[in-house]
Amino acid sequence: MTTWIIARREIADAVGTGRAPLLFVLVLVMLGTGMLVLRNDYHARMEAHALIRPDGTQPVMAVSPSPLSVFARGLDDAMGRRFEVNPGFITVGQTQASANPLFGAFPTPDWLFLFRVVLALLAFLAGYDLICREKAQGTLKLLLSGGASRASVAAGKWLGSWLVLVVPVVLAALLWLAMAGPLFGLSFRPGDGGAIAAFVALGVIYLTVCFTMAAALSALFHDQTTALVTAVLVWAIVVFVVPGGGVLAARHVSAARPLAVVESELQQAFGRGMMNTLDLLHAAADQPSDVRFARLHEGWGGVHEERDRIMERADAEAAQVVRVAEAMIRVSPAGAFEGAATRVLGTSIHDEAQLRRRILDHKNAILLDVFRAFGGEEGGTFPAFQPPRGSVADALVSRGADLVALLVTGFLSLLVFFTAVREYDVR
Amino acid sequence: MTRQTAVIALKELRELMVTGRFQAAAALVFGLFAVTLALATRTYARALQEYGIADAARLESLRQDGHLNRVTMWLATEPPSPLSILVSRRSGAGGWLSFQVDGLAVAFPPADLVLVMGIVLSLVAVLFAHDAFTGERERGTLRLLVSGAASRGDVLLGKLLGRIGALLVPLMGGLLVGGLALALSRDVGWGRTETAAFLALAGVGVLFVAVFVSLGILASAWTRTTHGSLAASLLAWAAFILIIPSVAPYAAAAFAPTGNYALHQRALMSVMDDQRDALVDELVREWQAPLLSQHPEVLDYYALSRSERAARAAADPALTEVLTRLSAIGDSAIAEANNRQRVKHERMVEEFDARRDAQIRLTGRFASLSPYSALVLASLDLTESGHRAATRRAQQHRQWQEDVFRPWYAATLDSLRAANLPGDWSNSRIGLTELPRFIYAREPVGARFLATLPPVGALSGFGLGFVLLAFVGFRRYDVR
User: What is the C-alpha to C-alpha distance for residues A227 and B107, in angstroms, rounded to an integer?
Assistant: First the structure.
């Protein structure tokens, strides 16, 4: 009961001083801008997709851009490329809707970025003075002398300020989600609703962890300025330093070759295979057409096998770097949140890798037909490519480590907060 | 600078540097510079080693299985640049034929000097400058400060210089240690050009830090409490670092659209493919028509089977001569169609590139509303990892193809024809041992620095503007 009274006091204070309405407006503007900008990007990529998608008579795979990329663009652009199966290789066409290279120079202002970076900063700012402000104002002594236990006071203040942070964020998100169709022309697929709900829930958990970390700092420091400076530096470490440094360190400790080297190996395999295939065809020049076709199959089939092996090795190396990087990045709630959120929305590194594996499988399933078409045989149609699509539950299970990391960080921060409040010297 | 300014600057420097908060933040910045540069150096050294092995394998492969048809693809390779140690690649997309994608670079851009300077150091600058006046006012010492011999201008300048000086300690310390490690590393071919680019980048970094110290002081000069000044400067920092740069390319795309890129690519392919073939048919028909009307027997010849044609041509030398003339007309029609379509192709490329460049320029203008964008654009130009270097590289490559590759290709093809090799010359294994290699000639650092003048000018403008506004605010500041 005492907890709720203190929480209500916090909420009333935030509403009365205009903090809560200001936060709501700020979040509303940011999320709306993010949705508008990314919706334009999505529609431009859809236009490009309409031009490159296969008509069934070509051995082409092209996955439609995901409407969920509006929330986390991630690797959706790379996943929307056009893959055309040729006798000796797969031609990859880029589909990006823009040729402006400066898109790559700055981060994408999608909801993932806004939650991970900007709203996280607001969460730190919402929690840094939870306890030390009361001390500076001299009201902490009064509060603690009123008969309420320190745990109740801590819980009430945490709950009230948490609601002041989370309710505007959820309300703004729900408002824009409701407007996504009528205002932005976004139409979602069956199952997307669950993914969006999981994303927003992950966002709320992440903001809660950030807020609790800041609250713990507010209970550890007696001076508001020190608490604020520390909170902002911790935010920078959590959001930028650990993820950026984790990738750099992972690349350093893992032995993945640069993409240019892999590309060169693929070209060599192609050059070698092409020469071998021509040799085989020259040797079978006077043979019947079925023998010539068998030679063609043998030659080009060998090229595909060798190139597949190179790509699989490169993928295994890249997967190792990603594993190491994720293990390091997961230490930071921002890294854990991004890992889980992009997986839930289907635009993560793992989704892109899974798609490429499926493309190689599909390519090998239709390769014989491609050879036949190349040999001049009348081809009919090629089977449609089915991109992999997992459920939200599967995605959450696969990112269990990220969820655990988020929850553990949150729990430890809460523990520090309550312990520090219990031990706090109010004088 | 007056003596009073110097005294205040030294006081600020000393006061700030003895605080635990500042020491912790400075250690963080210093450590980040040193660790980032050390890790990036090792990663670069390994990438260079891998490139050397791959290049040797590539040349060996060309000796074994070289053929003319795809040789251009094999020659367009370049070793990693040592300047990638300073600024990492900002995109994970591979080339046009690249199946693999560096997803990690897209999801989590690796730490580099731009991240450490642009985000962490600017934040530290704001955090340690925001209370320049508000802190002194709350402690009651501002009244004493302005009642002395120092004018308000001296106080402002002293505070500005003192705080910039304090922040230069971790910045210059980190860069010095990292720079020395780079210069002494045996794995990195760190030459004068790289050192000059590094020093220029450090100079831009100093200017950038000064801008954010000025921002903190500006917020302090217009607010009454440390909380107010911190909130204002953090809000401005977030807008400058997080919001404006991210939105700038999308806003530019909305105001200066380039048209659909995929449609453009498809149209370009069509011009040199089906449209070219249709034009060839049209020209051949038109140009051969007079000769065919004089020699209607050719049409009868075309109706024959392959073996009958050979027998007929052998028996009729006059017909053979007409066929040779028709063939020559056909070749001329193909050449003409290729020329016309190439001109069309080039015009379309130019038109699209002009629209793209207009969008890039507008992105730059929108982005120049943020000092962070100025830092990013300047660092991309200085380390030749941005659009400017890509354009320069493409121009050089085109020129190299014109001057070196095409003559070499034609000469090699002639020698193959002379050798009378059986089968398809372009796809014959010929053991390419002496290959022309394209080597990108890096832009002199002086020219690169000139290219960074607009962003450096924008940074200077921000700094001066902030200081001026801070002065206006502090002149009428109520010190009570």
Answer: 31
Is the distance from CB of A254 to CB of A326 less than 8 angstroms?
A: no
Residues of B in Cβ contact (< 8 Å) with A233: 24-25, 28, 123-124, 127
Instruction: Report the SS3 class of residue A337.
Output: helix
Tokens 């309710």, residue located: A167
Tens digit of each residue's pLDDT (9 = 90 or more) over B244-277: 998 898 889 889 988 877 778 888 888 988 899 9
pLDDT of amino acid A228: 86
The secondary structure of A56-80 as a DSSP string is SSS-EEEPPPPGGGGT--TTHHHHT
Percentages helix, strand, coil for chain A (3-state, rounded to 5) are: 75, 5, 25
HSE-CB at A158 with a 13 A cutoff on CA atoms is 26
Q: Are A395 and A344 in contact (CB under 8 A)?
A: yes
Going by the DSSP 8-state scheme, the letter that residue A85 receives in this structure is E
Considering the entire predicted model, what is its pTM?
0.85
**What is the percent of chain A where pLDDT is above 70?**
96
Please check whether residue A248 is in contact with residue B39, taking contact to mean a CB–CB distance below 8 angstroms: yes
Is pLDDT at A210 greater than 90 in this prediction? Answer: yes
A97/B58 Cβ within 8 A: no
* Contact A283/B at CB under 8 A: no
**Nearest Cβ partner of A95 from B36, B262, B376?**
B262
Q: Which residues of B81-114 are buried (b: 16+ CB within 10 A; e: fewer)?
A: bbbbbbbbbbbbbbeeebbbbbbbbbbbbbbbbb
Task: Kindly state the tokens that stand for A223.
Answer: 């001076």
Q: How do A82-85 and A60-62 pair as beta strands?
A: antiparallel
Token pair belonging to A361: 């499988």
Nearest residue in chain B measured CA to CA from A336: B108
Length of chain B in terms of residues written: 480
| Residues recorded for chain A | 427
In the β-sheet with A82-85, what is the strand arrangement from edge to edge? A60-62, A82-85, A90-93
Residue to test with chain B: of A52, A77, A94, A102, most B Cβ within 10 A: A102
Task: Say if A260 is an interface residue toward chain B (CB within 8 Å).
Answer: yes
**Four-CA torsion B86, B91, B93, B95, nearest 10 degrees:** -50
Question: What is the amino acid identity at position B413?
Answer: L
Distance CA A135, CA A426 (A): 7
